[in-house]
Design goal:
The chain is 26% helix and 22% strand. The chain is an alpha/beta fold. Helix 4 packs across helix 5.
């Protein structure tokens, strides 16, 4: 394997000052080439596919499945997106809404590297408390870069790169998510205005640019653990998320054991 081989990325000194060089072996079809888009020949189109009640531990939601026919979307991402709706939201203002991007690693396998699963559960709990609201579940794994690229980024993070540096080393966008499908789903559901459950001001700006009326932001704060604290600090410091600082956080060592369970926290107040 040589530096010119397109299956490798050369990384030097990303491990907190440790003087070493590492070869990161990547899939032949990987990294930035997976993100190449062709010029779209048609406009995206939202198509309702199915609807059914789904009982959850937070109550019964109506699950709506939509197909978003976007020719410019990453080929590794599903074009089927979900709306989990409680109560009657049609024609309603100030609807609590969570626009949530898929995270297989935390939501299915319980990874402690991020706060995605907990944010999803907090949103369900808040909607159940109010008796109405919606979660728009977007199939944008890895902030829109796809699962394989996300795991490639995790491999770089294991060697010391943070979540931003890892994407940059792979020549991928730091955040490739798009919210046009969320705006289309809100229009299809007949929602007049929303209270957005997020810590990310950029998400508010993008939705407003798409014509969504956002009345206020509801923070969704999740207590950090030893594995997520560095990630949350990077989101606060480099991605400008509205999060508390993580003073004195340390990267987990191999001897650190994940906790058996995490106690739930309520959503913080609105502002």
């Amino acid at each position: 394997m040589t530096p010119g081989d397109d299956r490798t990325i050369f990384m030097s000194d990303v491990c907190g000052g440790v003087s070493r060089k590492s070869w990161i072996i990547l899939a032949r079809a990987g990294s930035s080439r997976d993100m190449e888009n062709t010029v779209p020949t048609r406009l995206p189109h939202l198509e309702p596919l199915a609807q059914a009640p789904i009982p959850t531990r937070h109550g019964v939601f109506q699950m709506h499945v939509f197909r978003w026919d976007d020719p410019s979307a990453h080929p590794g991402l599903s074009n089927e997106h979900l709306a989990l709706v409680m109560g009657d939201v049609r024609g309603r203002s100030n609807v609590p809404v969570r626009v949530h991007s898929e995270c297989l690693t935390s939501e299915v396998f319980g990874s402690l590297k991020c706060d995605c699963k907990e944010q999803l559960e907090r949103a369900q709990a808040e909607i159940a408390k109010r008796g109405y609201g919606a979660i728009l579940y977007l199939r944008q794994e890895g902030r829109g870069i796809g699962l394989a690229n996300k795991i490639r980024a995790y491999a770089l993070q294991a060697l010391g790169a943070d979540t931003v540096e890892a994407n940059e080393l792979l020549h991928l966008p730091v955040d490739a998510r798009q919210y046009d499908v969320a705006a289309a789903m809100l229009a299809e559901l007949g929602v007049e205005s929303i209270e957005l459950m997020t810590n990310n001001p950029e998400k508010i700006d993008q939705l407003r640019a798409l014509g969504v009326k956002v009345d206020k932001r509801i923070p969704v704060l999740v207590a950090a653990n030893a594995f997520s604290a560095p990630y949350l600090e990077v989101k606060r410091r480099r991605m400008h998320h509205e999060l508390p600082s993580q003073p004195g956080h340390k990267k987990p060592s191999r001897s650190d054991n994940p906790p058996a369970s995490e106690s739930a926290e309520d959503l913080t107040g609105t502002h």
